Amino acid sequence: MATGRTHRPATRSRGIPEATVARLPLYLRALTALSERSVPTVSSEELAAAAGVNSAKLRKDFSYLGSYGTRGVGYDVEYLVYQISRELGLTQDWPVVIVGIGNLGAALAGYGGFASRGFRVAALIDADPAMTGKPVAGIPVQHSDDLEKIISEDGVSIGVIATPAGVAQQVCDRLVAAGVTSILNFAPTVLSVPDGVDVRKVDLSIELQILAFHEQRKAGEETSTEEGPDTGAEPEAATAVVPPAPRGAAGDTGHKGPDGDVPAVMPA
Amino acid sequence: MATGRTHRPATRSRGIPEATVARLPLYLRALTALSERSVPTVSSEELAAAAGVNSAKLRKDFSYLGSYGTRGVGYDVEYLVYQISRELGLTQDWPVVIVGIGNLGAALAGYGGFASRGFRVAALIDADPAMTGKPVAGIPVQHSDDLEKIISEDGVSIGVIATPAGVAQQVCDRLVAAGVTSILNFAPTVLSVPDGVDVRKVDLSIELQILAFHEQRKAGEETSTEEGPDTGAEPEAATAVVPPAPRGAAGDTGHKGPDGDVPAVMPA
DNA sequence: TGTTGTGAACCATTTCACAGCC
DNA sequence: GGCTGTGAAATGGTTCACAACA
């Protein structure tokens, strides 16, 4: 084992587990709701219910942040909101750019949940000249020629890609070259980025496929292995057989964007 | 909690791990791309690279499905496409309804990745009478009064919720009552559903918050605990102190939908 | 008394490393 | 020789259960 390569050093110093980080926004949302109702304190049990997790997990999660509760009482809502916000880095302003202003990009531009959490849409970028200057969600679309300038001038470090899959990698490369170090990718494609750049991926059709898997299981629940019982099919059969019908060989995948009709962003 | 509750019985019979199920769509996409390029076989190494995972994981994943490869050669692309599609339940038609046709709902309605994988948008539903009959992505919007009828007539078992958070639970209840057993939720709220109903959640702002967390870590990388070193703040300080500035107490959370301006779906 | 914070046990997932087979 | 399939080890995450404490 070459040992040296530690994909990421587990978030330096007092490292918070990835799974915990992923739940902090959930807690934050529940806490903000309590805060608006002027609830002063909350127990791990109540807060866990509101966030949809179990209370032992919540307490363990909070224990990574510090000892912010009071035994016998619970947690101070306002104080926790602040601590979690700070831990997530939401006490500062994060300018983001959205590239690819099709249906999805437009929906993202107008999404209220961004602004309210310290994310500021610094620019909307699209390759279609016809879009340039047109306001979407109150923000004028800029042409992708100016991508580099926009990023460096505004100090943008987070980029959202909502282009068709075919151009997503090129857009990604340009974003990274211009200084972006975190990318939220809606295009159904695997992006490769240099070390030190984070990519998170949201794929709408993957979620549906996972649901379909479970749905199928439910359907076959009573009737046991109702229809496809070729479980232990012999290995030789497997290699020799030609699939009955590859199903939708002329499908999409890899060529269509996340949006059917979104205009493409052309690389420089 | 009366002990007995086994959230879900780990997918009956020869159970495929959840983590594996979540990756099958990834493999499927990569394989479909290869299939379109008429590549006949692929090694675990190549396919893993295309899907963005490591090859040991991929082989382990496939081993849960069966022995579909050939040692010394690799996997037959067409055959694997078929097997994974079947496992995911994509060889059958899944009618879905989308409730809440704001920006996001419209984007989802037009999303190419659904139709190409066996998902058929059976209906678009919105509570705004002004929307009724208006075609979105070629499909006329129907009024939410007819929700129950649409679901039962079309045999819909998968519902997508893209309404504001405030009405998501009510919409969810109606969907479930009408027979939907899988829900993809875009509203930033925790849905409660009876046993036997699956919910998956996509939250756009959560992903950004996770990125912000890592981004913040990067920024403070050189300068050690640059700015917020109150790690071991005394417990008494914690309970006594009032947070310096709760930041955005007048924010959103819980009241705004996933779309800034999406019309609300009113429950019947 | 009621609730947090946390070791310890448990479980799921990933990775290693190599036998088995083409 | 090359690549799959898989036990076994390692890692990471969750849950239990209870001591500490306001």
Can you tag this structure with a few keywords?
homodimer, 268 residues, alpha/beta, 7-stranded mixed β-sheet, 3-stranded antiparallel β-sheet, disordered N terminus, DNA-binding
Can you walk through the features of this model?
The structure is a homodimer of 268-residue chains. Chain A is α/β, with parallel strands linked by helices and 268 residues long. Helix content of chain A is 39%, strand content 15%. Chain A has ten helices and ten strands. Chain A has helices at 18-36, 44-51, 55-65, 77-88, 103-109, 112-115, 147-154, 165-178, 204-219, 235-240, and strands at residues 41-42, 69-70, 74-76, 94-99, 119-126, 135-136, 139-143, 158-161, 182-185, 198-201. In chain A, the strands form two sheets. Chain A has a seven-stranded mixed β-sheet, with helices on both faces. Chain A has a three-stranded antiparallel β-sheet with strand order 1-3-2. In chain A, α1 (18-36) packs across α2 (44-51). The two termini of chain A are 41 Å apart. Mean pLDDT of chain A is 82; it is low at 1-13 and 224-268. Chains A and B meet through α1, α4, α5, α6 and β9 of A and α1, α4, α5, α6 and β9 of B. The structure holds a DNA duplex (22 and 22 nucleotides).
Topology pattern of chain A, helix = H, strand = E? HEHHEEHEHHEEEHEHEEHH
Quaternary assembly: homodimer
Total of DSSP H or I helical runs spanning 4+ residues of chain A: 10
In spatial order, strands of the major sheet of chain A run 6-7-5-4-8-9-10
